[in-house]
Structure to design on (371 residues):
């Protein structure tokens, strides 16, 4: 269902349960071909594979705190849910408000503000799980990766918990090329450094990471080591009845198995930084960083998010030795056997070096989305 969702104070796009119809649907594909943010233009797209869409994303450009002297900029979030859509939807509705709240308290943006916002979002969701424990116990087994980016006052803040990824396209003038630079640190058990981090944190648990069917998983259950939610892997109070036995960890644990601590980086935006590609791991499963950057660099801006999603789907079809046209006919749910939900946000950095976004330059726009 599509409904109006006016968001005063800046440009706002949110793919979730409410929206205004600015984006379009084409079967299981949702897309926003081109929009404006205070630093340039952007394009978004998402394809559903699961029975219920578990990815969520948002872009809001404007005031980033509740103070009159607020910092202005652009916030981008990509939230890749697992076990259900509840956590990613919750993060979509909560994280940015927490950023604004702590930015107001500290009178500006910082890595500490973002870290506090992640922690508050995590704690709020765990409180919700606690309140719903007896009537909706399965909520304890739902979680979400969380990737956020903020562009403000010539700085780029990147925070990530999970295995979504943001890649920068930077012009290398001497080579006449646009290079792909990965900016986010991923927390996936397929990475040896992540496995080692888990082993150090849990020295008395030889089963903290287990390889099953050629895939490394935390406790043999989940690939990511950091997330929002997944309460049953954070505290033992949720690793028991009435949660279904198949969702529980068999051995008791005294300390959290997963955590919600994001990896955060802060860097200056330089004139050669052209665009950012934020995407859930469903895109990166099929496209390399450089492949994605080459597509964005060599094709028109309008519809570039949709083009990236379709490029990933063509690769997914090729791996299964089928035609892309046949893949498009497969319905959600069954589609998950061929590819994951995929969400992409491409953000062009046309004016990121300028301190844009003063109150006079901000317009009221609309938010959008669809389930």
């Amino acid at each position: 269902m599509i409904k109006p969702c006016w968001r005063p104070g800046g440009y706002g796009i949110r793919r979730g349960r409410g929206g205004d119809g600015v984006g379009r649907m084409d079967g299981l594909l949702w897309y926003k071909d081109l929009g404006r943010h205070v630093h340039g233009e952007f394009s978004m797209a998402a394809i559903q594979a699961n029975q219920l869409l578990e990815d969520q994303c948002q872009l809001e450009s404007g005031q980033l705190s509740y103070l009159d002297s607020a910092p202005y900029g652009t916030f981008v979030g990509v939230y890749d849910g697992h076990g259900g859509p509840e956590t990613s939807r919750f993060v979509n509705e909560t994280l940015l408000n927490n950023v604004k709240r702590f930015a107001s308290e500290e009178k500006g943006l910082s890595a500490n503000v973002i870290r506090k916002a992640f922690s508050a979002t995590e704690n709020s969701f765990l409180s919700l799980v606690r309140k719903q424990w007896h009537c909706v116990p399965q909520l304890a087994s739902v979680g979400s990766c969380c990737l956020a980016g903020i562009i403000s006052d010539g700085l780029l803040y990147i925070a990530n918990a999970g295995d979504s990824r943001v890649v920068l396209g930077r012009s290398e003038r001497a080579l006449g090329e646009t290079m792909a630079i990965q900016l986010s640190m991923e927390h996936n058990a397929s990475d040896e450094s992540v496995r080692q981090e888990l082993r150090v944190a849990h020295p008395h648990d030889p089963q903290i990471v287990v390889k099953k069917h050629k895939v490394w998983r935390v406790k043999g259950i989940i690939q990511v080591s950091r997330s929002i939610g997944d309460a049953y892997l954070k505290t033992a109070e949720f690793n028991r009845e009435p949660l279904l036995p198949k969702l529980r960890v068999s051995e008791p644990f005294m300390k959290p198995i997963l955590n919600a601590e994001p990896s955060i980086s802060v860097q200056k935006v330089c004139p050669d930084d052209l665009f950012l590609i934020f995407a859930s791991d469903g895109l990166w499963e099929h496209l390399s960083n450089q492949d994605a950057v080459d597509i964005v660099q060599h094709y028109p801006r309008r519809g570039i998010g949709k083009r990236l999603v379709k490029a990933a789907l063509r690769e997914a079809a090729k791996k299964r030795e089928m035609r892309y046209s046949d893949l498009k006919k497969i319905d959600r749910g069954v589609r998950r056997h061929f590819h994951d939900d995929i969400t992409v946000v491409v953000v062009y950095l046309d004016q990121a070096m300028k301190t844009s976004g003063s109150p006079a330059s901000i317009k009221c726009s609309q938010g959008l989305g669809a389930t």
About this structure: The longest strand covers residues 72-82. The chain has a mean pLDDT of 88. The two ends are 7 Å apart (CA to CA).
